[in-house]
Amino acid sequence: MNLEEQHAMDELRSENTSLRARMAELEERLDAIRGATSNESVTRMFRLVKEKKDQLETVLEENERLLTEKSRQNAIIDEMREKVDRLSHLGNFYKQVYEEIPSALICLDLSGRVLLSNVVADGLFGDKSPLRGQSLGEFELKGAKVDLRAVFNSAVAAHTGGKERPAPQRLSVGSHKYVLETRLLTGQERLLGILLILTPLPA
To answer: Which one of 98, 125, 150 terminates a domain?
Structure first.
């Protein structure tokens, strides 16, 4: 809740309190007048004011209820905004870490489509354009003899068929050497995807 909304709600609460005080004061004065005289018109006026006071009290109570509900909703909204901000900062942190890792990282869904890749992977497997959205078979590690689809299928089978995960493979790309590994991405005991990791080896 911003300061302007808080100020408006505080003013409404203050007005409610002021109205209650004024009505109580008026009722007290009329009660004193009624006790000092038996004039029927004063009695009728007192009853009318009492009715109006009861009606006003009902309205004020409803206002208080709405203000309380509004405060509760604003507190929930503020908490949600804070969580979104924290998630956004955390997401940016992980994205920065993901991009700065020297290994090539390719996250694939269960169909073999790239959900996410870092700049290292984009440079190794393509022309530095993002691999995201492409499927296995649409890109390759030039100069290396490796069947990425077979590696992917073996990793999936390791989860669904209870087999061992594919062993790391050593690859040569020109004068550079790498190790290709896989990781299972799981959630609530379900396989969500496969992560391919290509780590450069010291020369």
So the answer is: 98
